[in-house]
From TrEMBL:
GO terms for biological process: phosphatidylglycerol biosynthetic process. It is found in: Cell membrane. This is CDP-diacylglycerol--glycerol-3-phosphate 3-phosphatidyltransferase. GO terms for molecular function: CDP-diacylglycerol-glycerol-3-phosphate 3-phosphatidyltransferase activity. This protein catalyzes the committed step to the synthesis of the acidic phospholipids. Its EC number is 2.7.8.5. It comes from Fructilactobacillus florum 8D.
Amino acid sequence: MNLPNKLTVFRMVLIPVFLLLMLLQMGSVVIAGTRLPINQGLAAIVFIVAALTDFLDGQIARRQHLITNFGKFADPLADKLLVLTALIMLIGPTTNRVPAWIAAVIVCRELAVTGLRLIIVENNGQVVAAAWPGKIKTFFEMIAVVILLLNNVIFNNIGVPAGMICLYIALIAAIYSGIDYFVKNRSVFADSF
């Protein structure tokens, strides 16, 4: 297994660690006038490390020509698992920072696109790599999650809901990239109608 694929697997391993930290209660600290639960701060660190592996595995794979079918499939899957876990945990009663309807739209988009990717693999025998609109979606999802995990700590003093702004950008990118994915791959359904 090459280094980019190992980084992808490592990202998947960090997901239960992140989840466990989100479930723990460890007290809180006050940073810049904002109360931040310690477990969420630690979860944010784990999430950031996982997000950085997403950036690194792609850079290394492209630079060293180590792009594999496993990487094309597992890298976006790891991203989806990481981001969806975080969004769902941010809906819960301890945080309540993500509106459930936004998480639902993003989850539905991810399931639809993943299903389409599986159909493409079955029909064409090829794994389709993530496109730029989806990468932009993932970037803003990850930034939103980090800011929301940190309780908007940096931006509260200036009154900017940066986490929600990034989340809405991610939502728009999710809808656009989902539609784009289906439009570009509509030929998969040509013989179905």
